[in-house]
Amino acid sequence: MTLERDIESILSSIGLNVYDITTLNDGGETIYRVSITAEDGSANLARCVEATKLISPLLDTNPPLSGDYRLEVSSPGIERKLKTLKHFQQSIGEKVKITLNDKSKIRAAIISVNGDRIGLDDETEILYADILKASTYFEW
């Protein structure tokens, strides 16, 4: 198994799902970020702490990176990047900002995901492969 699959397995045992795993640098510090969601919507601070306590021992024996890093476990937030078809599926009903490969931009709500096609409430359908970047957004 890969490290990511091991993390997914550990978290699923307590009703959590891995949304995304990224590595980033912030102010010279390397961060290994695990974003989680919960089936019941309870990906709150207490659940993030619980996940951190379960993931940390695994990373102590199987470090994800060489050198020093900090583990950060959080929810992906209300405004989050959509990187996979699964992310689009999980975001049905939410408003999204999409930039296509041709640099055109779309703002709409996701109404369906069928295979590699994403249906939007403006009556358009786009191919996942045509998306350069996408994220959910919230109108305040």
Produce the secondary structure layout.
Layout: H1 3-12, E1 16-26, E2 29-38, H2 45-61, E3 70-74, H3 85-90, E4 95-100, E5 105-114, E6 117-120, E7 125-127, E8 131-136
Helix pairs in contact: 1-2
Radius of gyration: 17 Å
Number of domains: 2
Helix content: 10-25%
Structural class: alpha+beta
Oligomeric state of the chains present here: single chain
User: Percent of residues in beta strands?
Assistant: 35-45%
Instruction: Give a short account of the largest sheet.
Output: 5 strands, antiparallel
Outline:
With 140 residues, the protein is α+β, with helices and mostly antiparallel strands. It has 3 helices and 8 strands; from the N terminus they run αββαβαβββββ. Strands 7-6-5-4-8 form a 5-stranded antiparallel β-sheet. Strands 1-2-3 form a 3-stranded mixed β-sheet.
Task: Explain this structure.
It is a single chain. It contains three helices and eight strands; from the N terminus they run αββαβαβββββ. Helices cover 24% and strands 39% of the residues. It folds into two domains: 3-74, GMP Synthetase, Chain A, domain 3, CATH 3.30.300; 85-136, SH3 type barrels, CATH 2.30.30.100. It is an alpha+beta fold. It is elongated.
